[in-house]
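User: Hi! I'm a student and our assignment asks us to look at how structure tokens line up with a sequence. Could you show me two examples?

Assistant: Happy to help. In each example below, the sequence comes first and the structure tokens follow. Example one:
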Amino acid sequence: MGPLRPRQSPKDADFFDNIIIDTRGAAILPSLTALRHRIDRRTTICLLHPGLGLVEQLIEQVFDDPLQRPNFVLGHSTHKLSKVRDIMFSMKQRKPGALYLYGVPKFEGSTFDKSSLVYEGMRQSQHLVQLLSSTECLNVVGLPWVRFLSWKLPTLIFTSLADTISVALGCKYQEIYHNHHARIMWDSLLEETLAIISQFPELQEVPHRIHYFTAHSFRRKLQMYLAAQRANISPWIKQVKMGNNVPVDYFNGYFVQRARELGLTHEYNSMAVEIVKARVSARQTELRSDLRFRVPYMTDTDLIGGGQPIPSLEDTLELELEGF
């Protein structure tokens, strides 16, 4: 058998050079699957999603041909945006921030010779970063994996606690803070999650980052951020009410995946994933039944108002990554 070579696409093929996707996690896979015939190794996909684990799922389920696999760039934005009232599909910036980007290396763990494709992928990913950098208001910052992960983890941790428990109990954020039993769930999930993070191989060379996330001060800042939510409701609650899947696989599920790779316990995060999926499944069954005179179960604060402006998690946690 000769050496593996990338398949050459027709010159007139209508392929995408770059795709920037920022939507609900449940919509990403079907969206990219529908565009699969216009994506190849020359395409760079930037995923602006608060969770992690999407790239691995896309490689497994959509882009399984390693020689035609697109390049991936992960993004984390601290810009604060809001919708423009009465103007569909329009957004306005409430507070400027930064757009942190990380180019995912191609073929990690692969055994065949692919140096030319790796170089091609790096060059194309860097080209997208440079394109985005040309828009000054985005304030683009390219980061290595460890620094990028350090920016992602606070949101990842908070969502895996607050939104998961909100769906499980059908409650507002503030009810978690004031409910003794909900706080026990919070503490159990948090302790297991931090134990997993402390064993991440990529963090072992930067022990001060491990100390930051495992210190009592970080736990306290998460609690302060939870209290600052006041009457806010998890956006997952609305999705459950509509019978939509929520992205628990990219939050608690990500920690489960990493724990399995490291041989660590993950019972609380695994249970959290199953509880959230059970709530979604139950709601979907309710909506499908559509019995006359039967009101679907809606006592889980689906429509409770009184939401407050959401504070900035980055401001609350003060990550202090300068010089890291």
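Example two works the same way, sequence first and then tokens:
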Amino acid sequence: MQPIPLTANQPADRFYAGGARIAAFRGPAGAPAAGDHVPEDWVGSVTPLFGETALGLTRLPEGPLLRDAVAADPVAWLGPAHVAAWGADVGVLVKLLDAGERLPVHAHPDVPFAAEHLGLAHGKTEAWIALTAAPVHLGFRRDVGTDELARWVAQQDTVAMLDAMHVLDLEPGDAVLVPAGTPHAIGAGALVVELQEPTDLSILVEWAGFAIDGAAAGHLGLGFATALAAVDRRGRSAAEVAALRGSRAGDTGDLLPDAAPFFRAERWRGAGEWDAGFAVAVVVAGSGALVAADGTRTPLSAGGTVLVPWSAGPLRLEATGSDLEVLRCRPPAGQQSQQGQQPDES
């Protein structure tokens, strides 16, 4: 198999606004959806939206769902080492997310909570790689009591929620790890590449003013008495929150080493050599190509997304000009080989 360029995969009528920045980033070749409530592009997805059976899944250009293609031949897609470690579980979900308005305060369960209460192998640790500047609310500044959190939710006291949270100002190129359980709210104007565990599990702390019935849909069917136990109510220092920002705009290579048990995010600039392995590539800037051992070329251009199967083999990243920047989003390492090497620029 060769790398596969993907068009946009944007579930319609989401409960928060966005989509214009995805359209501008992708351009016409990405076939982005029209509308002002299509704020997410699920790239190379084998994960449906919570409560859905197919919505959110990526369909390959030749017709089948990616989920079905991987299940039919997991080694070809994921590689023997990955399959030995993780089976046919792809292990990562990648999105483009455009916050046309501030998202509501919410959190995601961790693996033990998801296993105990939902029978799932994954929670939802996530990470953001910022493509635009925007503020984000991230973590509590002080310890929040169980009853206090429940009262905020019941009364939809948005002022109290936001006042208790840190604000982190993201700049383009920043990479931020969001451990499962951490309350957060991405600010208006943010366009991010989001990596996450392959689930769609959100616990809403806030929903007032959004087009969603949070009282019914905000607790994963568990009831808030159970669901809110997944929220990390610990107070974090400003330094602890700042430390979640793993890399800045000038960094290349592994952007979030602490995310390795969940997924890997690499930034590549200019030419390089990629080892064989499943990946979702997002072209942030510039143009170039992925070149296979037999010389087959997959063109790359800014705003493009490319699905890379393991069986594509080692690939050469070729740059046209000096501004090529590619994010290579990968599953957890497991028993896979180490990442490829960026050429020494010295």
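Here is something you could point out in your write-up. The chain has two domains: 8-247, 253-330.
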